[in-house]
Specification:
Shape of chain A: globular
Number of strands of chain A: 15
Distance between the termini of chain A: 29 Å
Keywords (chains A, B, C, D): Oxidoreductase
Strand content of chain A: 25-35%
Mean pLDDT of chain A: 97
Protein name (chains A, B, C, D): Gfo/Idh/MocA family oxidoreductase
CATH superfamily of the largest domain in chain A: NAD(P)-binding Rossmann-like Domain
Strand order of the largest sheet of chain A: 11-10-6-9-8-7-15
GO biological process, one term (chains A, B, C, D): NADPH regeneration
Largest sheet of chain A: 7 strands, mixed
GO molecular function, one term (chains A, B, C, D): oxidoreductase activity
Family (chains A, B, C, D): Belongs to the Gfo/Idh/MocA family.
Bound molecules: magnesium ion
Radius of gyration of chain A: 19 Å
Oligomer: homotetramer
Structural class of chain A: alpha/beta
Low-confidence stretches of chain A: none
Order of helices and strands of chain A: EHEHEHEHEHEHEEEEEEEHHEHHE
């Protein structure tokens, strides 16, 4: 039986998740949609949750935690767009509820874990990890991108993928600059992480990483299938936003969610991972003003999330 | 309803098609298998054809045409591994039968048409095509790879992809060398095609192409997602055969076949394309001994295959 | 003592040779110049030859052979721009005169032999050579570039560098197309050579080569020191003519000529090599019209040119 | 007249400078050498300084400042290997002496300023500089490389090249890690600098940089002329130390020194630059233990060093 999936929120991300569910996923179909204003099958997300087998949350960040809690209450697997909560406290409520339930129903949409380039990096043996360079460049920051949003909205991706690539926990961080911003982090195992976040890099959307190990390094190749010679130049183009860059990752993420929902064993970022990314980001923010290193602490990881 | 697909022949290619059908295809499932010796649901391919909605032919080349004809007789869509026939005459019989039937049921497994790199090349505007460079390197030729097989088994891929990339027909060809072999072809529109076929290139399996247009060129990027620095060297590895290189193409080809079989409108290489590749290869072979240019002629393309 | 060098012909190439002699060469200086119209020290090349220690010929092609003969008569080392003669017969007269003299005084300006990329290719071990791909693209052919000039003026560079890279002799050639033109050559040792010559490639000046051996291949890297991300694109620019691409080669060639002139032992392309390139080009031309393979023959190489 | 140059110290660097002077420099020759034990023309550097026109100092670091002062006293142009002094105080004595003399005679051997890749980066327009990524990897640290030497011996190169690329002054720095070490610096104009120094990177010697501007970025291309396909892999090799990587830079640096000594107008890093690199390094060191950001201050730049 094909899994009936409902999508809450039909903005850019929600519409794309719906498109993937309609044409690129095996074992599931788009069964319901919910949006406060757009064309959809439901206005009330709670009613929608009742009539589907699994849920995708792509509504505004402030609603993520409550809707995830509702899915947990209904016993429905849920793919929740990042962040899991608008605050670490909100995200922690989801973790607590899932722990109380005793089984994992929440996957958080840190889609990079399904990107072929990051997967190839993780699979590559370069010896014990020593240092990770992350680069995160947007062509142009949207108007509403203010205050600590480079940290809460962009850096969280780098926090999540660094934790995943290194299988390690972040213990210290320091920020210098605003845009670009340079974030230096350290991990429990002593690995260094250097991250550039540049919201107005002008030339295009570009995510890059290089992992430096004690036996070598592995870095992403340029994100292209073809190279052109045209008008005096050799090379390739960049997309202007993240959608083309991570199209394969979104498709693979949804297929993994569907497979996990059907088998009862979810993959990808857990509620714990979603909480961790937001909690770490929150603890980094005070250093934005002071320029001083911040010590990062997390509560003990609940047993439910041990491999 | 999920399309019931049966696979005939469970060698390397057939087993891989079966694997794709079991885990990577939307709207279809593996419903039957047929092999003379292996574990399978049917020994007789004709009996298997009766009980499925669509067929994949991956049995020995000598059986392709007859099995495709049986599928046409049964009105079942068929994805036939290349070549469509062991000879052009055999392939032509399939074309004639399909034309007599009056609708297309045959897709030929020239999977490169679904490879993201070739698709990106075709989508790229470099002005009017002027010249195409193809490179086809195998690490090591199998024992049974003798005589004209570099032409009938390997060059056919280059013939098909050149016709598809250029949307043009080959009219002349000349071969020099044996291994490597250099094949120079010309098309009806005056485009030049240079193709290296090297069956014992030693270093790995590597397919490359560069299309030269009057406004620029487009070439495949190196086939990798990541680049390493290890043991004194920078770069990436090659696979030792075609399976990893074209894994995405095989998956996309099968999805396209399933979608086409369901909608009644097949994509990919047609029976005419399958015939053309083999007919052109046959006409190139006499030049292998003489080293002289060979004029290539094809019959008029039946109306059924006009776009 | 610094070598007194005189340059005959102050067009693009001659002016550049003069510039190199004034600022980038060790052990020599620009002592005289000769041009029919421009500012220079001499109008009569023969008078100029008398008063210098070594000569650079960069006058029109039709004058090369006679001036080289004058240098031989005067016992002066000479760097003669390619071609050595407007015809093979003319070039042969230079060879004969040098052989009669019994010592080498002529170096021909096939500067690619001093290009770091070609030198690195030649130094690289890829097993026994099997095939060489050459690509020669100009942004736009000059007005005066007509008839067989893609062969006599451009392909000669590919002929010379192929003979040098492979240490082998060309025995057969076939041309298809006009612009681009595809030239397939074969050598005495059985190596295949595929050469694209495209005089109106539009995007820039670009020379590329890949040598395919029985243990691997070696190709030029993209000709750049830096890569940029700008305005939606990644990559680098091409020059619009050969001067920037081969600036290092011209400098190294002149230094080698000066060192050879001082030591009495010239390096680089010899008069024999200059003759061979032009003689092979002449024998290729008839095939331009017929499209048929041409057998190439050269006289026995005089003992003077044996290593 | 050819400039008579004497080299003090015939270790790895001194021997290479002597080699360059003997065969790759225009307008100068190796006239004298001085070493405490090796084969040379002089044992006493002060005697050697008397008999030459210009001096190269490549003796142990502890001797640099005193020998540079001796050259200043003798009025002889000097190319002093980095660092200019074993301490900032020593280097400052050289600055003071040169200022007292009132003309520049000292060039410091920060050879990267003559590297074609760095020069191409500096020439590239990517808008106002915003961030600079430096990577400095050695295959294996020598035994004697202890304590703060990654900062005083390796990071000084990054300090110098960053100041030169950005035409800016460093005002703050923080170090995390030991090997690799990650150094975050900030400049007077607000540019961020991220530098990895990894003394035991295992795979080879590798220096890389990317400059991020507000209109784009420019990075070094991989340091190779050719790319190979061999034994299952594509790519190129790294050298195991800095000599091959910077061979062109050393040659160009010496030619610039000779030209500057002859014309009376030195290029390259000045005594002020040499002092600055060492003074900045010294101020960074305390942060190695504390992990805290260090404020960097320099005295006012003497008028002599204004452009
Ligand atoms: Mg996301
Ligand atoms: Mg196939
Ligand atoms: Mg030339
Ligand atoms: Mg140095």
């Amino acid at each position: 039986m094909s899994l009936r999936v409902g999508v809450i929120g039909l903005g850019v991300m929600g519409a794309d998740h719906a498109r993937v569910l309609q044409g690129e996923v095996r074992g599931a179909h788009l069964a319901a949609t919910c949006d406060p204003v757009g064309e959809c099958s439901h206005r009330d997300p709670h009613e929608m949750i009742e009539v589907v087998d699994a849920v995708v949350i792509a509504s505004p960040d402030a609603t993520h935690a409550d809707l995830a809690l509702a899915c947990l209450a209904a016993g429905k697997p849920v793919l929740c767009e990042k962040p899991l909560g608008a605050t670490a406290a909100e995200a922690w409520r989801v973790v607590e509820a899932e722990v109380a339930l005793g089984r994992r129903l929440v996957q958080v949409g840190y889609m990079r874990r399904f990107d072929p380039a990051y997967l190839a990096m993780k699979a590559c043996d370069v010896g014990e990890p020593a240092l990770l360079h992350n680069i995160h460049r947007n062509a142009q920051a949207p108007d509403w991108f203010v205050g600590a949003m480079p940290i809460t909205n962009s850096l969280v991706h780098e926090i999540d993928i660094s934790r995943w690539l290194l299988d390690d926990e972040i213990t210290e961080a320091r920020v210098v600059g605003q845009d670009p911003m340079l974030v230096t982090m350290q991990t429990a195992k002593g690995v260094l992480i250097s991250t550039e976040v540049f919201m107005n890099a002008a030339y295009g959307y570009h995510v890059h990483a290089e992992l430096v190990g004690r036996a070598g390094t592995v870095a992403m190749a340029q994100p292209t299938r073809v190279l052109t010679n045209r008008a005096g130049a050799h090379g390739h183009g960049y997309p202007m936003n993240w959608v083309p860059r991570f199209a394969e990752a979104y498709r693979a993420q949804m297929n993994a969610f569907v497979a996990g929902a059907r088998s009862g064993s979810l993959a990808g970022a857990s509620a714990w991972d979603g909480y961790a990314a937001t909690a770490i980001a929150e603890q980094i923010i005070p250093g934005l003003a002071s320029g001083l290193p911040q010590t990062i602490t997390l509560p003990a990881k609940p047993q439910l999330y041990e491999a």
